[in-house]
Amino acid sequence: MIGFRRHSSHRSRSLPTLRCARLLHGQRVAALLLVVTGATPAPATNEDASSTTPSFQEGDVLSMDDISKLKPFLPEQVWDNRDFFFYEGMQLEIGPTMYDYSPADAYKAATERYKGEARIGPDGSLENFTAGQPFPTEEIDCLGDPLAGVKIMWSHNYQWRGTGAHASFFYSYWDRGEQLPLYYEGFARGINLSNRVEPQYEATGGSIFRSEKRKSASGPEVEAPFDARGIVLLTYRYRSSDGPPADAKNDDTWVYVPTLRRVRRISTAQRTDAVAGTDFTMDDLFSFNGIVPQYEWTCLGEHQLIAPMNTKVKAYPFEKDHNFGPYGLSFANDRWEMRDTFLVRMVPKNDDHPYSRKDIYIDKQTLTALYSFAYDQKHELWKVITHNKRWTENHDLTGNWYPGWEGVPEPRDLIIVSDMIINVQTGTGNRIEFWDRRGAPFTSKGKIRRFLDVGRLTKGR
Questions:
Q1: Type and span of the H or E element at 7
Q2: What is the rounded radius of gyration, in angstroms, for the C-alpha atoms of the chain?
Q3: Reduced to 3 states, what is the DSSP secondary structure of residue 402?
Q4: CA 145, CA 299: separation in Å to the nearest integer?
Q5: How many angstroms separate the first and last alpha carbons of the chain?
Q6: In this structure, are residues 285 and 267 in contact, taking their beta carbons and an 8 Å threshold?
């Protein structure tokens, strides 16, 4: 069994001080903004995974008695904390090995059109990038190129995700198997304003609007609980965030609090604070949701792993009673697949960062994260982050839940639909669900302009 020890300094890390206590609700929800829309110890990895033949095959269903078969293909951090992930009664289905989740044709065409133009600039910045995948995976030399890590993360940053995000969300907090009263439920949208791959935006360099300085915009609208209902947020991320940190503009976030009947601006310069009362930060979403040049990146190796991939589950908002295990934080009752990955290490450039490092396994084909492991300043494992995903071509779950659009008739998007964040030091964690997430665009530029207008926050939807 796992022994838990309390690290109160981690749990109590505060958000920027706001005069009104109700703004804490907005700060906590801010972590969901894009849901939708020196020397360190050697990494704990499974060095034999790539050379081991699996003792399972597609179609097998594994129970708790069979999990030893998975060990060679799991990061050691997952195996060492397996009580969180695997449990009696689970039905883990083995899916296909290295299934083809290649992106939409428009994304592949943009990658080919601008191939060789993007380059790494000062302090890990990205220069001369227009659209598509900045650095094709087949050209990455993980161990031979000192810039391989940052190239992978820029490709992760610009992985194919449709045009942004559109989803219902449910965020819950768990303490050693007990769901606590702290939760948020609502709706969120996001849009990529620049670096678009559709042919109709080629004339504007991939931007929806000419001379666009924003990279994306996103924000949730909270519907429950009652005391948070009506909170609306809007965040801009700027194109300058691709540049050196000294030249980058931090995100801007505005929140409308109904009890105040006014819009307040929130500082998001420090995205690494723990969201009040929980175990994750804004930058932990999708394993990494931060600004790439604010970190050092190193590619540590290539590994073959098994992970949740193309879900069979219809959880929130389709079904609200799916079994996520005794801790409420497991994807074991679903389909898992073998994948080729890069292992990339993130080391913060900011000495005040709560993490000493984070190790992230990135799927080589889709550039999405499979697992990540955050370490505290004592270099002890602190958080394990996992994800589930849904393939747009899998229509057997909810029908055509993610339709195509002009320039992208087939979205071909392996989209993250849930994050699990587990604090292995305390036994607490968070489940963030958005199983209906899709990346189809707004239906008109007028609706985009309305979404981007800070003034609309006071008027609701």
A1: none
A2: 21
A3: coil
A4: 9
A5: 47
A6: no
pLDDT digits (tens, 9 = 90+) for 196-226: 999 999 999 999 999 999 999 999 999 999 9
CA distance 20 to 13: 18
130 contacts 160 by C-beta, under 8 angstroms? no
Measured in residues, the chain has a length of 461
Q: Which residues pair with 438 in a beta bridge?
A: 166
User: How far apart are alpha carbons 458 and 461 in whole angstroms?
Assistant: 9
Residue labelled with tokens 């779950």: 397
pLDDT tens digit sequence for 95-111? 999 999 999 999 999 99
- Whether 130 and 116 have beta carbons less than 8 Å apart is answered as no
- CATH code 2.50.20.10 for 8-37+41-456: yes
The residue among 340, 334, 303, 298 whose CA lies nearest residue 319 is 334
Structure tokens at 378: 């004592």
User: Distance between CA atoms of 263 and 344, rounded to whole angstroms?
Assistant: 39
**Contact partners, residue 428, CB within 8 Å, separation at least 6:** 11, 173, 174, 175, 176, 279, 422
* Structural contact between residues 363 and 336, judged by C-beta atoms closer than 8 angstroms: no
Condensed to tens digits (0 to 9), the pLDDT of residues 378-421 reads 999 999 999 999 999 876 666 678 999 999 999 999 999 999 99
**If pLDDT is split at 50, 70 and 90, which confidence band does 281 have?**
confident
Taking a C-beta distance cutoff of 8 angstroms, is the pair 230, 258 a contact? yes
> In this predicted structure, what is the pLDDT of residue 266?
81
Question: Encoding tokens for residue 165?
Answer: 């995000």
Report field, pTM of the whole predicted structure over 0.90? no
Residue closest to 294 by CA, chosen among 216, 241, 252:
241
Cα 29 from Cα 191, distance rounded (Å): 18
Cβ proximity of 126 and 118 under 8 Å:
yes
pLDDT of 347 reads 97
Strands (E), 176-329: 178-192, 214-224, 232-238, 252-257, 262-267, 295-308
